[in-house]
Amino acid sequence: MRFISALFAVLGIAALALMLAPQESLPATEWYSSTQCLDCHADVASEWKSSHHAFAYENPEVRKLSNDFANQECIACHAPQPVLKFEAGERVLARQSERGLGVDCLACHAVTDGGVATNNRQANGDAPCHPRFVERMGSVQLCSSCHNQHKTVDQWRGAPDNLKGNNCLGCHMPQEFRQGGRSGSNHAFPASHDLVALQSAVSLDLKIEDGVVRTTLTNDGSGHNFPTDERSRAADLFVQYQVDGKLGEWQRLYRFRDPYRDETDLTNTQLPSGQSMSFDLRNDVQSVAVRLIYKTNPFMSDDDGVVVHSATLIIDE
Question: Is this structure's pTM higher than 0.70?
């Protein structure tokens, strides 16, 4: 009996020693493709696949406006090397492989010494991809390497405090509850291709003030100019009058847009964060209607744009 008791004691001490001994971690995975991430992160991958980050290189509008990437400077942001290889805010370089994946997992998360970067302070470092918290992942500096090429981050820095939030993630990566009840940042990146995001960025008002019919567009929900980033974006404000019971043609009142460098006859007409622009309209009509149409390509037809807001005012029945 004493022998058996002693044996159990020895085995218990050995088991305890194994539990307390530092565990040897597996070597970090050698990253060569974002497809390696998909099996473990299926929910995140599904969100990303619906985003325009995933679509960045194959987007036919981008292809057309860049002359099928004959303008090679566009490739760097549409199929970038890992951003964390570069200094904060430094312009990235284009990668040579798997460009069809666009702005993929490794573009934002890969680090040069193995593992991946995350904004999660409680990251499980023993996971196969060896994630670790990197401060820059939750900063505008991560996004600025691509998204400040057209001054979006500079616009954000000058925005009112009540609109700018802490960083880009609050608006463009809201928390998402996934399978199993876990939450994480939404990798669909709702922005200009998401109607709800567009509608929350600006408000459109139409009313009579001191006998004057006036419409006002206010950038009251965005931490940067509207529209921002891509110079190919445009937002057109239209008006339509009803006279003698007949509806007239829609007339463009104003175009909000940052023109390309070679469009020297145009000026920047974006609407800065927190600001409004008003237009006085006719009041000798039966009704007035206004609508704001967002275009991902300034040369597309009005019918192909997205109606963000609309309003109608009855003046004289």
Answer: yes
